[in-house]
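To fix ideas, we reproduce below a protein record of this kind.
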Amino acid sequence: MDVLLCSWEDAYQKELETFKDIGDVGEIWFGEESMSRVLRWMDEAKIPKDAAILDIGTGNGAFLVELAKHGYRSLTGVDYSPASIELARNVLQAEGLTDVTVKETDFLNCGGELGEFDVCIDKGTFDAISLNPDSNKECKKLYVHTLKEALKDNGFFAITSCNWTKEQLLKRFCEGFEFVQELPTPSFQFGGKTGNSVAALIFKRVH
């Protein structure tokens, strides 16, 4: 088990114990607004309620819960942390959502077993993969390759990142993807310049 997985496993094991004790689902990466932002785009883009949706690095499954409450019926979440998947299953069960699929899967090494999705959502997972000190460059390439396999033609990819700028993400996802739009995120001013602490972009899978 690599160092990165160990750290995530420890974190999710603690969140799992807390959830079982007091029902707290734990941290929501980038906050609830990050989920609302993507859900608003899905409404505006008229994503069908029966669209096949993949939550990459589902963590505690909180986004799957929100997607289900929003009416989406074909939901899958993957994470390579066993404790994360157990936590997500507990959270989903507590919400009465028994028809949502969660899988213990290493997204970088799943060999096309995921199937094809209409929408793939990433809220911090590409960031975490990018920080992996082991084979950093190779991991990022593998991520893009797997994403291409997981998305149907003309399927959408929604990514939220705090480590990469819009320009860097456009460069990373330039082959096999078409930039659709940037979602509004909070801005800040420093030294007379305006910037964003988070980038949220939508891409479309193309050939």
In short: Helices lie at 3-22, 32-44, 62-69, 82-94, 125-130, 136-150, 166-172.
